[in-house]
Predict the structure.
Amino acid sequence: MAIREQLLEYRDGSTVLEGFFCHDDARPGPLPAVLIHHAWNGRDEFVERKARRLAWHGYAAFALDLYGKGKRGETTEQCQALMTPLVQDRKLLLRRITAGLETLRAQSAVDARRVAAMGFCFGGLCALDLARSGADVRGVVSFHGLLKPSGLPAAPVRAKVLMLHGYDDPMAPPEDVLAVAKEFSAAGADWQLHAFGRTVHAFTNPQANDREHGMVYDEAADRRSWHALVQFLEEVLR
């Protein structure tokens, strides 16, 4: 195994973006690929570790950048300031997502016909928005994602959809779960939702320990959700 890592600079209009790409050079290509959407703080070591794990499983992985090269949030206020303009302009957000997808597909190591997407928290919303757009990807996976609809014109959903959700997540309450289930059913999607009991937001992040605001790491949910991801990717990309 020879995991190759590189930073890829790309653009959305005049905005310079920088994503993290990795794959196993020892595997014959082109490889099935996974686009990874970061949480509200920006592309960081957390999503880069996920990319490396996926490379170990035989995928090419690209952790995209939604904010701009070098832009990261350290405090709650900074993260909110970075995320809010994109959440409020889902058309712009989709354009950023699509720029990342096109960059991934353009890599010589990637089989452009076999691509899936995933994301965490804000990134989970991004993965779902990609499916909502009717994009030609095999599947999307949301980890403790925000579930609010995009408000953009509805399109037939071609991707299979997997939502991995903490049932007690205050940022995606049961009414949002019911609404997203109705939304994807109406769109004709092949969708599934795994809800983990007594589990809140950010359950995959070992640094999450804010019980007051419902953001707490859960080792069991983290492990189970990763197993569900691996099984799903095996189904949609192999």
Strands lie at 3-12, 15-24, 31-37, 60-63, 110-120, 139-143, 160-166, 191-196, 209-210, 215-216. The chain has one domain: 29-42+70-237.
